[in-house]
Amino acid sequence: MPTEKKRYGMVIDTRKCVGCMSCTISCKMENGVPFDGFRAWVDMKERGVFPRVKRNFIPKLCNHCENAPCVTVCPVKASYINDDGVVLVDQKRCIGCGYCIVACPYSARYLHEGLKVADKCTFCVHRVSMGLEPACVHNCMGKARIFGDLNDPLSEISQYITKNGVQTLRPDLGTNPNVFYVDAEINKLPNKGGK
């Protein structure tokens, strides 16, 4: 039985990701993300030795951490966690100082040059509030992304986590991410831009 308070999260099953980048493109289109900014991206790494080479795809985004370092460093309280556990930026309060961008251990934030504010994945809260999935989930051709309420043990995401071994990015940091991965060597891959 679900609890009254929701806690949104996402599972990315790397066994199903084909590296099509539809998550990146749909996110940019849905949210007006500028060309040089990313709310969602896909890291790639080739493993093995020719002729036995395999390319691994690891989709990434804001991890919507319960202990989000980006929130604690914001000097004007523009970064915050809403009632559903989604980490957001109040663009009217943000002064574009970049503290949160530097504090994010997942390289999930960038400075929106046009707006002069920090920007990042919002789990498409505007879509979720209307009963829709985030754009990246809706447009994932491999159905590698599962989104939902982590507090509801009957939700698709909770059932998926129960049935599949999941891991998070950098568990050693104690940020308690709400984005989980299935079958990924995620901690051996660089963040976007090789960071």
Automatic annotation (TrEMBL):
Residues 8-38, 51-84, 85-114 form the 4Fe-4S ferredoxin-type domain. It holds the Pfam family Fer4_11. SUPFAM superfamilies: 4Fe-4S ferredoxins. InterPro entries: 4Fe4S_Fe-S-bd, 4Fe4S_Fe_S_CS, ET_IronSulfur_Cluster-Binding. GO terms for molecular function: 4 iron, 4 sulfur cluster binding; metal ion binding. Keywords: 4Fe-4S, Iron, Iron-sulfur, Metal-binding. This is Tetrathionate reductase subunit B. It comes from Desulfosporosinus metallidurans.
